[in-house]
TrEMBL record:
PANTHER family (alphabetical): INNER MEMBRANE PROTEIN YGAZ
The gene coding this protein: ygaZ
InterPro entries reported in the protein's UniProt record: Brnchd-chn_aa_trnsp_permease
Protein name per Swiss-Prot or TrEMBL: Inner membrane protein YgaZ
Organism: Roseovarius gaetbuli
Family note: Belongs to the AzlC family.
Amino acid sequence: MPRQTTKSIYWQGVRDGAPFILVIVPFSVLFGVVATEAGLNVLETMSFSVLVIAGAAQFTALQLLSDGAPTAIALISALAVNLRMAMYSASLTPYIGGATLGQRALAAYFTVDQSYACAIVKFEANPGWSIPQRLAYFFGVVTPICPLWYIFTLVGALVGTSIPQGLALDFALPITFLAMIAPMLRTPAHLAAAFTSVALSLVFAFLPYNLGLLIAGVAAMMVGAQVELIVERRALPAGDAQ
């Protein structure tokens, strides 16, 4: 097989990230609309999207603040939602940890669900890629996603309340996460974590300020880690497992 060039790998990333446009566009428009309806002006809405660049956390904080939740609860909830970014970073470190500080900082900023989901699958499938090749793919995935996030957040903020109530843009959030998560549910640990998070989210749905989601998320991570440990122990030879 011919050696892949950095340029061709970059365009692989662009192609892999392109399907997410179908949900990024309505999702970002929806956030712009919701933010302005909640009382943010265009500058505040855009600052929110550019600085945070994490849709789920942005919606979480905005919804809680709109419901009158204390600022501390909104911040803690948004941070909890984004705890997965720490796990994403730890997972990507073996592949791009040798990059320069500036490259790592830029990759950290653009580590979103879509870029991580595409990158980790591709990195595992191509262990021979160099760090420049991995970064080229990663930023290729980002290219059709993050600029459109900014642009269509601005569109939503400018359009604001003129969008008809019957236009169901809120379908974008669940579809985005299903598209990213479903292909990754390959191991017992992934499945156990997913089942735990869903079950406990329903059990603790009565708690105020979406605190049930925090409990479900922490419990799911613990269950997933424990299941992975059990699977690894069972895979060891009998003598090594002792």
